[in-house]
């Protein structure tokens, strides 16, 4: 099958196609050598909100102060946008988890039990608009399986998905790092007879002879990062621990998950973060959602010595362990930002050429969602002023969907309306 992206320089091997990172001596992005790198969009999500007293920001730029939840982002505060006072009107209905997450990226009214209906999410609208420009339209990653249940007359499918391909279809979550990796590089997902780097070694050697010394270093760094992720995927699950909790019996009273699936949540999340970075670095996709857990989540965190209570119940405590878990989630965003910011793309970095949004469906475990916790890193290709706080509290236009209209504009997608908004945020 021939795609429009096939005009770009690619590394090819048997069953493998690898897109390249930005190289100064190769017109990777499909125009001439001066063509601008593309803008990427990602949304990270964690359920159940954050510590109610520690989600805040003060000041700007180098002197910006952040609450303890956001402390992992301090190294990136000059590239941070703290958005206060935004809300999702349709999520105010019901006041329960299943009513607050399924429309977070759609702004749509959710149908009660007996029907599944939300709306097309912002990530999928962007993916559809730029379809054909990349190998993979979008990545929809997760680390916790969907919940199949009803809660207070609403399907828990809503608590398990933030990405929607249509009003009635949540986009399937990819929970397996190996399969997400295969989507980036293999022509057939699941075909893993050899390393992707071994498959393209001849093409790699040929390319090295045609690029500058600086590009040879960039290529080596990129290939090393691919090899490292591949190696960690191969090792995932070897420790024999069970994901999300520590067994209390001498022998587990349930079957051990299969080898190759990360069995520890910290390992699982980190692999998914690395796959997001690889996807953006190679321009294999420009759109990704990473659902770090469900709303109403049952995850536990033995690596933090917080395995006595599931995430959902912990969110009602506001104790030191809840803060520790909050910081663990925010560390994933900081890790992604650090990796992206280390990659130069012309005069900017890959982080500068991205918009990495982080949000939850409620401010804290008290289910208060009259304003939502929202923070973003990256300037959308230099189009967004960062290192600042924008407060919409009390303003007439403080809709999450207005934010999405603003962000879509930075990638050249300009619908007249989205969800419940027809007016972008002028300050973004």
Topology:
Layout: E1 10-13, E2 16-19, E3 40-45, E4 57-58, E5 65-66, E6 80-84, H1 97-100, H2 122-129, E7 139-142, E8 150-151, E9 154-155, H3 157-160, E10 164-166, E11 169-170, H4 177-185, H5 196-199, H6 201-208, H7 213-235, H8 265-281, E12 287-291, H9 311-314, H10 320-341, E13 344-345, E14 348-349, E15 354-359, E16 374-377, E17 388-391, H11 400-410
Parallel strand pairs: 3-12, 3-15, 6-17, 7-12
Antiparallel strand pairs: 1-2, 4-5, 6-16, 8-9, 10-11, 13-14, 15-16
Helix pairs in contact: 4-8, 7-8, 8-10
Low-confidence stretches: 1-7, 240-254, 256-261
Q: Tell me the span between the first and last alpha carbons.
A: 39 Å
How many strands, what sense, and barrel or not for the largest sheet? 7 strands, mixed
Radius of gyration: 21 Å
H-E order: EEEEEEHHEEEHEEHHHHHEHHEEEEEH
What is the arithmetic mean of pLDDT? 87
Beta strand %: 5-15%
Helix content: 25-40%
What are the key terms here?
428 residues; seven-stranded mixed sheet; two-stranded antiparallel sheet; 17 strands; 27% helix
